[in-house]
Amino acid sequence: MYKLLLVDDEAEVRQGIISRIDWSKTGFEIAGEAENGLEALEIMEKINPDVAIIDIKMPFMDGMQLAEIISTEYPATKLMILSGFDEFDYAQKAIRYNVMEYILKPFGADELMTILERLRLVLDEEKMRNADLEKLRNDYMESLPILKERFLNALISERMEAEDILERARRFNITLSEGNHVVAVVKHNLDQDNSITGGSESISPLEENELHGYAVFETCERIGNNNDCITFMRAGGETIMILPIGIDKDVKAAFSVLEEVRMVIEKTHPMTVTIGIGEIVDSLISLQKSYDSAEGALEHQLVEGSNRLLWINDLLPKDHGQLTFQDEMDRELRTVIRAGSPEDIEAVIHKHFQVMRDEEISYLDCRLFINEMLTSLLRIGRSHNLILTELVEEEQNLFILMKEIAVLDNIEAWFVNACNILNLNIMENRMSGIQRMVETAKVHVKTNYYDSDLNLDTISQMLHISPSYFSRMFKKESNMTFIQFLTEVRMEKAMEYILDTDMKNFEIAEKIGYAEANYFSYSFKKFYGQSPTAMRKTKSVSRS
Q1: Which residues lie closer than 8 Å to 426 by C-beta, 6 or more apart?
Q2: What distance in Å separates the CA atoms of residue 312 and residue 310, rounded to the nearest whole number?
Q3: Which residue from 528, 529, 483, 533 is spatially nearest to 508, judged by alpha carbons?
Q4: Is the dihedral of CA 239, 240, 246, 250 positive or negative?
Q5: In sequence order, what are the residues at sequence separation of 6 or more whose Cβ sits closer than 8 angstroms to the Cβ of residue 538?
Q6: What is the per-residue pLDDT for 354?
Q7: Residue 227: CB partners within 8 Å, gap ≥ 6?
Q8: What is the mean pLDDT of residues 243-253?
Q9: Residue 79: its pLDDT value, please?
């Protein structure tokens, strides 16, 4: 069953729609109701519906404003507009907001059933297209010309001259120009309980994994082609997207595209994806740097979780330069120290030391190998403003210490201990940084609650992080959403004005950051259970 959200300020209209339709025959279920746009957005965050039916004329936030927000933040949701005759021309302009159907009031049950059937067929077709194994197999063979694939892979993994890049892009009919870009790496996470192959024994696990990878690529390519993105696959099955960024380096549009990818795959495939997003770079020759940092962002999946967008700018300290090690051992060591468990650290260190044992290298080469590992360790500490000598409580030079420890097993044990200490300090610093960020936001709200423009976007801009990351961290640290905290602060100030002053409701609304007095009264009643006027009378009676 597909989930449907019904948004109309008239309760009788909502009840009429619900009662006049045999929903068991439509393929839809009523997952939520809302009487205005603001309430609808709260419900959207919880249920993420497949379809939203929206009335145009509503208080606080009209249907067009709601459609615009949904098309940006929930791009996979299909929209249907309810319109009176006078508003129909106005509603037609909403085509850019992903509105798929319009229905004029008054309407009959049969008319609504017909429209719902069309929407269901669109959703079914979208699901079937992504699950068609034979189509995926044929498209896979036809859509990956070898030379084009090699060029795109070289673009993010090798050093190339700008003129060479542009010339080869023209040869392969790839739209690519100088300017700001960001690289995203889309990695699929399989759901072991489901399969696009239907459990066919003729499909090997390796082939099934490749087909899942291509299913992700096909979805990314389809969405990316509509947004001027370049999409291709790496040999390991990862999908790479190169997204253009405006001259102002605003990442909202790029994040919206990637969020649409994540949500569409979650809805139409038996799997989810985690998307690592790299640094914004201002030249084509720097795409390798953006790709490396996108891979670095994916390393944090162990801590941050899967099925989400991970932007490197959200995950690394802002005031320290990050070093990128090209050597695979350095890369693995950095990854496990930043985001691994003690068991992971011990396994990686043991693997590196086992190389020295297995290869039977000379004493000098062994010492050089150990010094290179130690240099990597020192750089990792320095990139997080940590001094390794102080952390391990060693007063002497660590390179001299390595020379004095004669047994390889003892040096390995020292590295395991040092890496665990670095890991612990990095995790603690990162969590304290998040706590400071949340506390800064709370102080800002308490001192600027009167600002009607204060919202999730403005405070995220102030903190120089993305709204989605700030929202997630704020809820994790405060056990409430940012909007709930902002509302709580404003309602407490409103209560003070009601108890201590004779100010009118519209005056109080302006004082606490509400541009509209009616919405202030609505929010106050929802928070306290009484309207401001009723609350004032109650307090007056209790005082007398």
Answers
A1: 337, 338, 384, 386
A2: 6
A3: 533
A4: positive
A5: 530
A6: 83
A7: 243, 253, 257
A8: 84
A9: 92
Tens digits of per-residue pLDDT, 5-60? 999 999 999 999 999 898 988 999 999 999 999 999 999 999 999 999 999 888 88
Distance CA 91, CA 60 (A): 18
Quickly list H helices, 384-504: 388-391, 398-404, 408-448, 456-463, 467-478, 482-500
Residue 87: which of 126, 55, 114 has the closest Cα? Answer: 55
| 3-state SS assignment for residue 201 | coil
DSSP 181: E
Q: How is residue 178 written in tokens?
A: 């100088």
Structure tokens at 385: 């403003």
User: Angle formed by the axes of helices 252-268 and 205-225, to 10°?
Assistant: 140
Residue 280 near residue 249, CB atoms below 8 Å = yes
Nearest to 112 by CA among 187, 8, 237: 8
The span from the CA of 10 to the CA of 245, in Å, is 42
> Are residues 401 and 378 in contact, defined by beta-carbon separation less than 8 angstroms?
no
Residue 360 Cα distances to 7, 153, 357, 365, 410, angstroms: 72, 36, 6, 10, 18
In 10 A of CB 260, how many CB atoms?
22
Is the full-model pTM beyond 0.85? no
Statement: residue 223 has pLDDT above 50: yes
What are the tens digits of pLDDT across the range 492-511? 999 999 988 989 999 999 99
Alpha-carbon Rg for the chain in angstroms: 28
The backbone region for 401, taken as left when phi is positive above 0, alpha when psi lies in -120 to 50, beta otherwise, is alpha
pLDDT at residue 278 in the model: 93
Do 523 and 487 contact (CB within 8 A), yes or no?
yes
Q: Decide if pLDDT at 512 tops 70.
A: yes
Cα separation, 462 vs 20, whole angstroms: 49
Question: Can you tell me which residue has the tokens 């600027």?
Answer: 448
Instruction: In whole angstroms, give the CA distance from residue 272 to residue 215.
Output: 11
Q: Can you point out the beta strands (E) in 105-203?
A: 180-190
The DSSP element (H or E) to which 242 belongs, if any, is strand 239-245
Would you state the structure tokens that stand for residue 466, as one six-digit string?
């993305």
Is residue 314 over pLDDT 80? yes
From the list 398, 366, 363, the residue with the least C-alpha distance to 381 is 398
Q: How far apart are CA 112 and CA 23, in angstroms?
A: 11
Taking the C-alpha atoms of residue 201 and residue 205, their distance in angstroms, rounded to an integer, is 9
Retrieve residue 316's tokens. 């690394």
Return the half-sphere exposure (C-beta side, CA atoms, 13 A cut-off) of residue 272. Answer: 10
